[in-house]
C-alpha cells in the first residue's frame, strides 16, 4: 500500500486528487493539507511513502516543504511529487535543486498521475514528458548541480545503462524503455537502480538533468 499525503490550497484540486488516488486498491491517502505549514507537520507526523505537493500555497510553498522533507542529506527523506499549473518558472528550477522525485502538470491524465506516484514510490521518479525538453534545457543553462563528472560516470556505467539513460532523457517510461529495448520492465528497473549511484543522483529526474548537463543528449535529440 502506497501511503500518500496531498497538499493543495484549492479545495477542488485537493479533493479531486484525493478521490482519484483513494479509488486505487494500492494507494491510501493518509492525510490532506491546505497549506505548506500543515503539509510539513503532517509529513513529519505521518511519514507517507509519497507527498504530492502543489508548488504555490499559503505559508511555506511546496518547494520549501520538499526541501525540508526530501533533501538528500536527510536520514529518511520522503519522496515528493510536485503537481503544478506552471510549466516554466523559477519554482520549477527550485524544485529540481531540492531533489524532488517527480514533476507533473495538474492537467495530466489521471493514469499519468497514478503511474508517476507508483514510480516514485518504487524509487524511480518521473517527469512530465511535455516538460522534459523545455525544463531541462532551460535549467541546465541557468543552474549548475554538482553531479559526478561525465568521464568518471560513463566509465562506470554499462552500455545497456547508457542506452536506458538516453531513452530516459527523452521522457520515456519504464514500460516504453522496455518495449524499445525488448527487455522486461523489471530489467529496466534493475539497471536504473545500479546506474543512479554511478551518476551521483537519487532519482530518474536528476538522471535526466545529469544527461543534459553533460551533453549526452541535446534538446534536438529528445
UniProtKB/TrEMBL annotation:
Keyword S-adenosyl-L-methionine appears in the UniProt entry: no
Response regulatory domain span: 3-121
Sites of 4-aspartylphosphate modification: 54
Domain HTH luxR-type intervals: 150-215
Keywords: DNA-binding, Phosphoprotein, Transcription, Transcription regulation
Gene3D superfamilies: 3.40.50.2300
GO molecular function, one term: DNA binding
Pfam family, one: GerE
Alphabetical list of PANTHER family matching this protein: TRANSCRIPTIONAL REGULATORY PROTEIN NARL-RELATED, TWO-COMPONENT RESPONSE REGULATOR
Protein name: DNA-binding response regulator
UniProt organism field: Brevibacterium sediminis
Amino acid at each position: 500500500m502506497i501511503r500518500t499525503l496531498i497538499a493543495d490550497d484549492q479545495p477542488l484540486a485537493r479533493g479531486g486528487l484525493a478521490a482519484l488516488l483513494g479509488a486505487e486498491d494500492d494507494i491510501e491517502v493518509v492525510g490532506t493539507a491546505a497549506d505548506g505549514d500543515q503539509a510539513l507537520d503532517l509529513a513529519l507526523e505521518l511519514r507517507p511513502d509519497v507527498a504530492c505537493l502543489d508548488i504555490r500555497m499559503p505559508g511555506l510553498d511546496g518547494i520549501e516543504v520538499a526541501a525540508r522533507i526530501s533533501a538528500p542529506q536527510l536520514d529518511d527523506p520522503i519522496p515528493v511529487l510536485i503537481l503544478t499549473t506552471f510549466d516554466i518558472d523559477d519554482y520549477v528550477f527550485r524544485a529540481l535543486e531540492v531533489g524532488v522525485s517527480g514533476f507533473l502538470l495538474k492537467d495530466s491524465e489521471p493514469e499519468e498521475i497514478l503511474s508517476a506516484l507508483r514510480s516514485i514510490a518504487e524509487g524511480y521518479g518521473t517527469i512530465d514528458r511535455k516538460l522534459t525538453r523545455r525544463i531541462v534545457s532551460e535549467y541546465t543553462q541557468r543552474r549548475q548541480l554538482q553531479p559526478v563528472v561525465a568521464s568518471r560516470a560513463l566509465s562506470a556505467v554499462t552500455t545497456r545503462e547508457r542506452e536506458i539513460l538516453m531513452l530516459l532523457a527523452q521522457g520515456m517510461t519504464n514500460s516504453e524503455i522496455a518495449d524499445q529495448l525488448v527487455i522486461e520492465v523489471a530489467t529496466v528497473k534493475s539497471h536504473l537502480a545500479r546506474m543512479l549511484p554511478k551518476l551521483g543522483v537519487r532519482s530518474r529526474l536528476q538522471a535526466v538533468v545529469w544527461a543534459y548537463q553533460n551533453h549526452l543528449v541535446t534538446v534536438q535529440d529528445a
